[in-house]
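#data-curation
PF: Archiving a pair of folding outputs for the training set. Convention for this channel: one message per protein, sequence first, structure tokens after, nothing in between. First:
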Amino acid sequence: MSGGPVLASTSPLMTVRGLTRALPGDPPVPLVRGLDLDIARGTFVAVVGPSGCGKSSLLYLLGLLDRPTGGSLLFDGRDTGPMDGDARAQLRLEQFGFVFQFHFLLPEFTAAENVALPIRRLGRLSTAAARTRALELLEAMGLADQANKTPDHMSGGQRQRVAIARALANDPALVLGDEPTGNLDTVNSRRVVEIFQDLAHKQGRAVVCVTHDPDVAAAADVRVRMRDGVIEGVD
């Protein structure tokens, strides 16, 4: 497809054309400007660039957490522009998983309960089935023995893997990470990267990760280089 970098040979899961986001002002303050990008299933993408270049702004637009002031964003062929807030929230719940620098686990809930929250919110499984799904995801993350522990009884690396399990709760097509290794040591960072690679290569999901970590960027299939709100290049 012409008009933007194609990140894999398969049809794009997400298609971005002329994407712009500016803060109100006189003049408006641009955050991202006229971005063209295709993101394919089965691809691990790292978004890199200096602080303030628009990386996180792009991620929030891709995740439908913010609205563009110009351009279009198609998810699996659906134009997200006309969607109201409820429709966007439902699409996020069904198809998107988020992993942030801080795990944002609820401290009063166990690991299994935290992972089950999005499943219960979606409402397609019974309480018992939601717990079974949560336990399966924790086991896949190597955390079967942590299921009944609250976050304050787990290490930083374990908490972040619980957050990844929660992001996968509703079997999303797209996983978005905002500096997900920023608070982790080298060993745990490497483990998170390996999980992201497996999510893309073995499970066929699209994974987009904003990072300052050169090791994370090097492990990705594709690096989107940003500067001053525009895409400088893709390699």
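PF: Second:
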Amino acid sequence: MEYKNKKVLVIGLARSGMAAIKLLNKLGAQITLSEIKEPKPEDVDILKSMNVEITNQMMSVFDGDFDLVVKNPGVPPVSPIVKKLKDRNIPIITEIELAYDVSKPQHYIAITGTNGKTTTTTIVYEILKQAYKDKALVGGNIGIPLCELVLEHNLMENEGYYISLEISNHQLVDIISFRPEVSTIINLGPDHLETMGSLHNYYKSKTEVYRNQKDDDLFIMNKDDELIKDYTNKYPVNCKIQTFSLENDDAYAYLKDDYIYVDNKKIISTDNIKVVGKHNIQNIIAAILACKKVGVNDEDIITAISNFKGVEHRIEFVREINGIKYYNDSKGTNTDASITALKAFDKGVILLVGGYEKGLDMSEMKKYLNPVKKVIGFGEAGKRIASDLVNDPIIVKTLDEAINEANKIATSGDIVLLSPTTSSYDQYSGYEERGRHFKKLVNSL
């Protein structure tokens, strides 16, 4: 795509919007930013230095004369803004597509799914870094926009980097040409009803990760996930497939007798794995297959996995006080994620739930409450979520109050687990801020 002198509308700033704007400026585009909030003064200075026109998100803005739109993933695909632009046949892409379009060939490993994306992406990066040193990069939904990597490492002129890329469904919706060398959908479960319009739309959006793959590209398939089977049948994969399973050994990669096997060869013992939970074994297997595809040897794989200690905000141990352990699972922003967290414990869990109301059904999660001693709801959706889970929850307004209530009833051997089941936008800028606040509160006890 040609960008020089093209009129490009960027919807939404944040880190990815700013990265896209900087790249578009380098490409010579005429840029307009549509932002619902007043940008910070320091951001305004940067934008003005690039001659970016700053405007709001009144519907009249989207009647403007634009050749292309770069949409922040935070703007829902079902929003009136998006509908209006699509009705006008103006191309809409995300910064992932923009970055891919202007870069030289790289080794992209694209990881999506409902849960486990960040952990898997991080494991892949740690393995790639062990093998390829400075040629290994990580970005995408994990916090570093791909456009930022393009600028930092001059990927428009340099090629051959190994990029571990976490991609959310909101980043996949507007993919046009993005073609990873390796892709995977870790798992599928209910999420993002409020932004996708239906679960079908959400699940289908995940299949975009492999839509442009072909020939010797690789899709790594979770053989244990029925929804993935269903959606890969509806939307067929047109490249090589390698399967993995935790439930049986008829997959290409599998777990057996506390060893991970690939193509019937022992790779690594679970004794070498420091992160807890079977879900992390699943993430590790997917990461192994991805890295082997791009040429990493077993020795580097084993070294990197043996040194991996987990990801912040995902069943992260924070502190033990008087025999009570505190875990930060702020990244548990849907019921499947919280179910995974609950499976890691067998008793004494005081569960803190709540946040932004996404309308998710709690009926499946109710089946996994055996280890739960008490449920405490906080935030906008806290009362609804906690009351849907149990008959006698404690309801408070803030996370501070939730921790205070937990401490009143916790005894030695108990677990205080923040796993909210929903996003954080009622009171925080994101799950990271919520998780950091939880850790600050716990560390101040």
